Amino acid sequence: MWNENQKPEDGGRMTGIRDHPSGLRPQTQSTRALLVLISAPSGGGKTTLCQQLLAARPDVARAITCTTRAPRPGEKDGVDYYFLDPATF
Length: 89
Description:
By secondary structure, this protein is largely without helices or strands.
């Protein structure tokens, strides 16, 4: 966790929070975060699953990832994926 007085953009460094027995700050509902990783082979339905999740949960955000494959019809760079050549990736 970042020390509250030193944010990364200020040159801060990672530090443990020592004011709680577990070493972690207790989280409230408003600060709780959950990372969900969806992984499957090409054509496995990841996009469909993500679209359904986003439609059902407006409080969920999707990270745009990178791929070296060519865009499929209707896909837009920076919206669906960042389409990169293998050397850049």
